[in-house]
Specification:
The chain is built from four helices and no strands. It is mainly α. The protein has a domain of about 35 residues. The longest helix is centred in the C-terminal third of the chain and has 19 residues. The model has no long low-confidence stretch (mean pLDDT about 90).
């Protein structure tokens, strides 16, 4: 079940259909011009909260080595892996 009110869903569906029908009519030059004038959309992220984790020395060394090979800071790689695992578990577990 969606959290959007019925009127909003109907309006969004109509707007999507209007966009879908107008896209084939647009010329590449027109699209390029519009994209140049478009403003960049920046989404505000909630502030991050620092945490402390006790890791095995070998695991930390391997993490740093893998992160170096990927060109990432090891803390960013840890955060990425943790986020991916949370998403996997979230899809498996019902609350």
């Amino acid at each position: 079940m969606t959290k959007l009110p019925r009127k909003v869903r109907i309006r969004l569906k109509r707007e999507a259909q209007a966009w879908d029908s107008s896209i084939p009519e647009e010329k590449p030059e027109e699209v390029s011009r519009l994209l140049e004038k478009a403003e960049l959309f920046l989404a505000q992220r909630p502030p991050r909260q620092p945490v402390s984790v006790q890791l095995d020395t070998f695991d930390l060394a391997m993490l740093k080595r893998i992160a170096r090979q990927k060109g990432l800071p090891f803390t960013q790689l840890m955060s990425l892996w943790l986020h991916e695992k949370i998403e996997q578990e979230k899809n498996r577990v019902t609350f």
